[in-house]
Design goal:
49% helix; elongated; 88 residues; alpha+beta
Amino acid sequence: MADTQGSAHTLGRWHVNGVDTIMSVEGNCTIAKVFHPERDAQLLAAAPELLDALEAAMPVLARFEGTVGKSSVMEIRDKARAAIEKAG
C-alpha cells in the first residue's frame, strides 16, 4: 500500500490496469473502478501527474502577481489553485 500520510490521496503514479481499474504503480493497490473506461480511466490514471504539474506551475504563475495586463495568467493561476485545493 502506498504511503498516504500527510496526503488526501494515494501517492505516486497511477495506471490503467485492464480496461476499468485504476491501480497505483508503487503500491499495486486499486484506486478506483470506472463505469465509462473510454472516458474516465486515462484521466483518473493521470491525476497524480496533473496535480504535480499544477503545483509546479504555481510559483511560475505567482511571478505575474500584481502585473498589469496579465489577467488571463491570473485566471489560469486561480483555476490551478482551485484544482489543487479540490484534490486535497
